Amino acid sequence: MGRPGLNRRHLLTAAGGLAVAGSFGFAALGTGADALASGADTRVRYWNLFSGGDGANMIAMLDAFRKANPGIDVKDSTLQWGNPFYTKLAMAAAGNRAPDLGVMHMGRVTGFSPGRLLDPWDVGLLAKYGIREQDFNPLLWRRGVIDGELYALPLDIHVQLCFYRKDVLKKAGLLGDDGRMIPVTSTDEWFDVLKKAKAVQKKGLQTIGLWTNDQNFQWWFFVAFYTQLGGRWFNEDNTEVLFDADKATQVLEFLRRHVTDGYVIPGAPTGEQFINGAPFTWEGNWSVPVFSGAKLDYGATPLPPVFGKPATHAESHAFVLPHQADRGGAANEGAHELAAYVVKNALQWAAGGHIPAYTPTLSTAVYRKLTPQNEYVSAMDHQATEPKVWFAGSTGVLAQDLGPVVVSSTMGSAKPAAVANRMKSRLTKLLASKNPMDGRTAAQGGAVA
Amino acid sequence: MTTSAQTVVVPARARTATAVATVRRKQGFQHGGWFVAPFLALFALFVIWPLLRGVYLSFTDANISGEGASFVGLDNYREALNDAAMWDALGHSAYFTLLVVPCITVLAFLLAMLAHNIERGKWLWRLCFFVPFLLPSTVAANMFQWLFTQGIGLINQTFGLDTPWLTDKSYAMLAIVIMTLWWTVGFSFLLYLAALQGIPDHLYEAAKLDGANAWHRMVHITLPMLRNITGLVIALQILASLQLFDQAVVMMDFSPGPELSTRSFVQYTLEQGFTSYRVGYASAMSIIFFVIIAVIALARMWLLRNREEGTR
Asked: The domain B98-262 belongs to what CATH superfamily?
């Protein structure tokens, strides 16, 4: 997930604060010229939300496609990440001005009124361009299937990782013979690791960056550890809340303990501290280019399985077909061809830290040599995802509702047990509420493959 | 915070202006209509029509795509009035207003007195106090985001603090208040300065002859003469502060702040409309907000009406 282009982390690395002023509107909205590129007979209009390093990688893949397919003119537009993107996509689809191809977070697809604002993929046409279901993680593929139709073609998964500095861990005796962090299998072991790292680390820095104040990160971490405990959200029919307040309390207490035991400085910038010598930071895999660019000797592993079962939060970028009343013809075929090409040639994409969804890519020699990617590729098989309901998904209603509640527990202004109960009542309320896009509750939406 | 720079009647010119206006009014109105027409057309298109459309939407369950909305009567209003998160957000906007309005009024008055009574370099003082107001909210908010940053921020470094201004719910709103004071005090400062210049000198001279010291002169001449302007400053600030939005959003990296502590009413409305896609519900909240603001504005007009009858 490309983080929004406007936060302190980016500001610190940006050439200057004034660059921010430009990031409010659209970047690169195309030329608006109606003439087709020379020699092309089909135009594919493609909207995405990738900025920064992701944006550069996407553009490189598009350029490779253009070179290979001179008959197709790709008009790509990059829109601002997050809710503004979804708003514009919804309005364009409703007003029949939708692009031929779009990108969404997998978790948001269910709530995006598939069938009304999104058109299903033509699986036969995808097969023609080499996309077959068996080349994907079955759980991931099924997340894009709603009412029996494929609405989202996964491009990647992006996961939360435990980044660690090898120089510090070596000093603390926490590196194995393979040069990777020693495995951790319980909360006690984990805090023991933190303790040892703290003993040898540079003073004045925190031991681990946890984004204690960020409602998105705290929510993602919660989902990861709650899944490790085998916690469930709703029953199969989405008619009943199965949220386990005891398990939730365990997770919240675990997150909180990082603060109370003094391993976190609340509000301290996470990435900068890591670059300056803090032993650990939990971040999304999109930080890989940042840390590699800083020439750090570091590793990255999925979030530690402190509750026994490995699971780390995963979201996924997926290609979608925004609804067009007259979808079909050459532009639609071009959209299928373009999406298939990018999904199958996502090595460039992996450089941004994301794990390509197309599994044959993962076993190529080139991918296996990528570090630290080869260390966390296993996350593909241990995805902790939000429930498949209309209010879930990246920066969606669920995260917006529950994220701040998790933060209040981690920051210590509310007791974990009370917060767990509050989460349960929020979930109950959300389950009963209707998706404004089609007026159906999660149970009526029946968005189960 | 948007401060609508309404034209302000300066009491000094007030009497002549009123006299002229009375003469004009007798000459009839037919020419004026043409001058007003372009404004009225734009006003109808961009204010009146959206407002009416908003009222209509507030009675429906419209979503962002604008399709398939149905009439739901007063449901949205009922839900909003029972929505704890809405009251929280309204509380944040009110709290911000309670902090900003008295501070900015006192500060603007003090700065105006300073700039008015200083002998040399008057223009420089005026410029310094007013220039921040000319900055776009995003620029000013970004500057203060840097100033307030915990580890490397100038404010903590200068005062030897380690205050988590932007990341702790006890300080976040305070940081926005401080930024707002610096950014918008210039507008009220200018109103006061103009009013100060309108106080006739002979009043002060007469008071001096009667042996009044500086303190007496301020309490018995300056403040009473500024009563109307103070009323205006307070009213404009209340209306502007209640609409807290952009500086809070920019300073908090487009989040509702630590533990939702800086989520203003406007921000919550926006979330309902553009994250939850509930345009009907967001419209109902906007209308509720419109009513609150309108009541305050009308109350002010009513109060001023009584006051002007007293002074004229």
From this structure: MetI-like (1.10.3720.10)
